[in-house]
Amino acid sequence: MGQRPLKIYSSLGKAKQKRCPVGKLSEKGEYVIKPMNNITDRLTALDYFIVLAYLIILAVIGYKASVPKKGQPDETLFLANKSLGWASIGFNMWGTNVGPSMLLAFASIGYSTGIVAINFDWYAFVFLFLLAIVFAPKYLAANVTTMPEFMGQRYGESTQTILAWYALIKILISWLSLGLFAGGFLVRQILGIPMWQSVTVLVLFAGLFAYTGGLKAIARVNVFQMILLIGVSLTLTILGINKVGGLEAVFQKAPIGYWSLIHPASDTKYPWPAILLGYPVAAVAFFCTDQSMVQSVLGAKNLEQGQLGVNFIGWLKILSLPLFILPGILCFILFPNLKDPAEAYMTMVTNLFPPGMNGLVIVVLIAVLVGTIGSSLNSLSTVFTMDVYARKINPNASNAQLIKVGRMTVIVGCLFAVGMALAIDSIKGLNLFDVFQSVLGFIAPPLSVVFLLTVFWKRTTRKAVNTVLSIGSAFSLGVGIVYLWVLPPDKYSFWPHYLLLSFAIFAILLITAILISLLDKNPAIYTPVTLRSDAIKPTRRVWIAWISLIITMVGLYLVFD
Predict the structure, then answer these.
(1) How far is it, in rounded angstroms, from Cα 233 to Cα 360?
(2) Integer CA distances (angstroms), 59 to 53, 212, 223, 362, in order
(3) Which residue, 152, 166, 233, 479, is the most exposed by fewest CB within 10 angstroms?
(4) CATH assignment of 39-68+78-153+160-280+303-426+532-560?
């Protein structure tokens, strides 16, 4: 087990401790552990300068990306005029994925159970490969702006409308609300202000880029921000390792079970059957069908750049271990008696970063929030504007009108996200990481079913797809509401693991869709778009990149098994 101090000396008491891994040495030769308090009390002039300089740089990057070049047609807010290369795609997808929830949740789960949560990032390479090789060629060949539009080309207007509204609900809840909640949670930890004030200030700042510059501005900003995130988080990890006494000391002082990726089926928190069966349900919906993630690929210059960009995020996800999980494990070794594991990340920051570096921490918090919330707001405005407004309300809308509606949607999305973030804050009985995964687990099953069947089974009918997206979605979300709010698992022990529950819902909906398709007497079956062989065949560069990633990921699983 980690090295545990017998007693902690603080300003609230004068008990002596025999040993303490980190802290400030008092005049009496005793260590004083600094509590996880208001970081603003420790800010120096250099910190304020760093934050101001960052905001200026961010504004300049966003402004340059927002202003159209002379001689070019007006740009839209939505797909960056098909101008994104592989690096921008990878960083933007990673920036969308790595929100405040990643900093909080991964450090929290690292503190309490070790590296098992890394499965939610490393296991993703399977589904990223599926996106790059199977889904992306179909999306780009169809020349669509949104996922509902893609399904609408195959099954008609009714399917597109149903999926558009479901996609809007998914973006509002799983992206905007959860991301904003995590950001507000961090700000509440740092500043000590109420949640409603935290989320209000954060959403106003994050919404600025989606309102003014759309996907192109967000993608440009995310490249800069993710490089910054890597630098700051890696610095925190290195400082923690040095305090513990080196990597060898880290491995020795953490419980042996903390270094295992695969936990036994009897494990109550993360049994391997739950991850093996339940995670793919969410992963297919998240990586292969989610507008917020796929939109970067839709904005690619060409298919190869899109496939390489998806491969790039697979490599970036390897960094989740040293950047997000390991700080939690280090915190367990250094501060094993935290009341709330969700405080692990900020506890490390307030105790390890010297004065002058705290400004960088605030900068990173802003960066991850802008990346997630900005991308989510852009996806929300894209789906509503293109799939609802342009089709149902004003089919003859000009580009200027579409941009105006897209910006109004951003404002409405900000207001809704604030309300949902406050509701999520009331959920009890789950740790922070499980809140994110369980919410996604109840939203994902209908999407995973309809997209997988559409791509892999040509016999799938419109009636089956529409039934799953409407009645099936109501069923899945209804179970989720009961699980999270009505009969929470901390009070009612009859529930299975939330990942297994998600898989059960997926299986029910999948069987239902297959039966409806087979029994449909007048099936409406889509005709796939005919693709040129050079449009769907991965290039040599793409295969090299993906084979290299697959070999690396298999090797990592063998090392940490």
Answers:
(1) 10
(2) 10, 11, 14, 16
(3) 479
(4) 1.20.1730.10
